[in-house]
Write a structure and sequence with these properties.
The protein has 12 helices and 2 strands; from the N terminus they run βαααααααβααααα. By secondary structure, the chain is mainly α. It has one domain.
């Protein structure tokens, strides 16, 4: 992780997707496969859709829950799974436990009865990250956040979704902001990941709040000189009064 004393380098990411394992057609096979899937497969299906379907309006359902709701026509199980996965993010171990917990809790007959029609099987994919540096490192934390909002969405995704997945919930950007004296800003960015929104929609919502906060800061900064002038004038008047009283006391 980057030290707060050092400038911060924004990093973006894109993902190469490759098939993993055999397609599954039902809940029984899905339960078995999820228990064996490596982290990069779970990541591809529980997190990557936030970037892949970045412009979706509203909360984004993970791939497995979406498949259960559509191909298997089981919206009740899909909603249970979606809630469990959303609550477990961003930790890979917790997501795996959530998936196996919900699927394993279903009656065996129900799991066996749910089969997708031919051609609608679920194909597992592994996400292989390709990362790149974006621009020069930042010294100013607010300039870094402004760039996070204006540059490609893969940067937002990497720092707020991918890093926490890989680092047990930690984000180098959020840690750096806290170390640079911006803990509130770090908390507000972290809260964006709890909304379950596609990257672009989350950025749009945060951008509105960011612009309001920036406008407020500029207003306060504009008022500061006038306030300082009033304080200086008050101090000058007080000093003059003290000198006058002192002179009167010393007069013969």
């Amino acid at each position: 992780m980057t030290s707060g004393r050092e400038p911060f380098q924004l990093v973006g990411v894109t993902h190469l997707l490759r098939p993993w394992g055999e397609p599954v057609a039902g809940l029984d096979a899905l339960l078995d496969r999820v228990g064996l899937a490596p982290d990069e497969v779970l990541f591809a299906h529980s997190v990557c859709r936030l970037l892949r379907d970045a412009t979706l309006q509203g909360q984004v359902m993970d791939d497995l829950s979406h498949w259960i709701a559509t191909a298997l026509q089981d919206p009740e199980t899909a909603e249970r799974l979606w809630l469990a996965v959303s609550t477990a993010l961003p930790r890979a171990t917790a997501v795996r436990e959530a998936l196996t917990g919900v699927l394993g809790s279903l009656p065996a007959k129900r799991r066996a009865a749910r089969e997708a029609p031919s051609g609608a099987e679920f194909t597992f994919l592994a996400a292989i990250p390709v990362r790149y540096r974006s621009g020069e490192p930042f010294e100013d934390p607010r300039a870094a956040v402004a760039a996070l909002l204006d540059r490609e969405p893969g940067i937002w995704f990497h720092h707020l979704h991918e890093e926490p997945w890989e680092a047990d919930g930690a984000s180098s950007l959020l840690q750096w902001l806290e170390q640079r004296g911006e803990p509130t800003l770090a908390q507000r960015l972290a809260a964006c990941t709890e909304w379950g929104l596609g990257v672009e929609l989350a950025r749009t919502r945060f951008r509105r709040r960011w612009r309001l906060s920036q406008a407020s800061r500029r207003l306060v900064a504009a008022e500061a000189p006038a306030e300082q002038q009033r304080r200086d004038a008050a101090r000058g008047a007080a000093a003059m009064l003290v000198r006058r009283l002192t002179q009167e006391e010393e007069a013969p």
